[in-house]
TrEMBL record:
One Gene Ontology term from the biological process aspect of the record: transmembrane transport
Species: Mucilaginibacter straminoryzae
Signal peptide: 1-19
GO cellular component: plasma membrane protein complex
Protein name, UniProt field: Energy transducer TonB
Length: 220
């Protein structure tokens, strides 16, 4: 994607008054890791959406993370990216003796879009963009369900023109697919095959074959 985040990060724990897991190398290392690996989602980047997403997860005795989910988010693509990058921290935590792995760690992640390009962004414009994202999810589901059924030979082909019109309305064009392929490539380089496969399968499920080679190679 075109824009990276400037992240301001800190840790808060659901459990207080006890020794806490720490990221190997300390808070500056955590900040650097997330700043390097977060890929600003396309919709939020283009619509200049800034937010802090709180992600919860658990850390076991080996420093691996599990049960990663959104504690407080916006219900948009920023949530998904925050969860994805926290999963990448697995194995990079140091756990003190006697730590209870059943406690949740809360990690707030701040997303800030390009300030030069987004000078005119306001709270009202961000609120509108968030509402539009959620409204468009219904169309997105209709598109992906149509192509999933089409690949199975079960689609109502009479809806093809309607689906194509929806794709045009949502901007699912060649440029969008190129951006998503680039995003998937970045995730693969980070070792995030799961995230890359999610993007490649999305491309396939909006009716494009441009990710099929990657799916057959990496997404078994």
């Amino acid at each position: 994607m075109r824009f990276r985040i400037l992240s301001v990060l800190f840790l808060a724990f659901a459990a207080s008054g006890m020794a806490q897991p720490s990221f190997k190398g300390g808070s500056q290392a955590l900040d650097a890791f997330l700043a390097k690996n977060i890929i600003y989602p396309e919709y939020s980047s283009q619509n200049c959406i800034a937010a802090t997403i709180q992600v919860r997860f658990r850390v076991d005795e080996k420093g691996n993370v599990s049960q990663v989910g959104v504690e407080k988010g916006l219900g948009i693509d920023l949530d998904d990216e925050a969860v994805r990058v926290v999963k990448l921290t697995s194995g990079k935590w140091t756990v003190p003796p006697g730590y209870n792995p059943n406690y949740n760690v809360i990690l707030p992640i701040r997303f800030d879009p390009d300030r030069t390009r987004c000078q005119g962004a306001t709270d009202a414009s961000m609120t509108l963009a968030i509402a539009q994202y959620k409204a468009q999810e219904g169309m997105q589901d209709a598109i992906t369900n149509y192509y999933k059924n089409k690949y199975l030979g079960k689609a109502d082909l009479a809806r093809e023109a309607e689906i194509i019109a929806m794709k045009k309305q949502l901007g699912y064009d060649d440029r969008f697919i190129r951006d998503l392929l680039d995003q998937a490539s970045q995730k693969l380089k980070q070792g995030d095959t799961e995230g890359a496969c999610h993007d490649w399968n999305f491309i396939r499920n909006i009716g494009s074959n441009k990710a099929d080679t990657f799916i057959s190679q990496y997404c078994k």
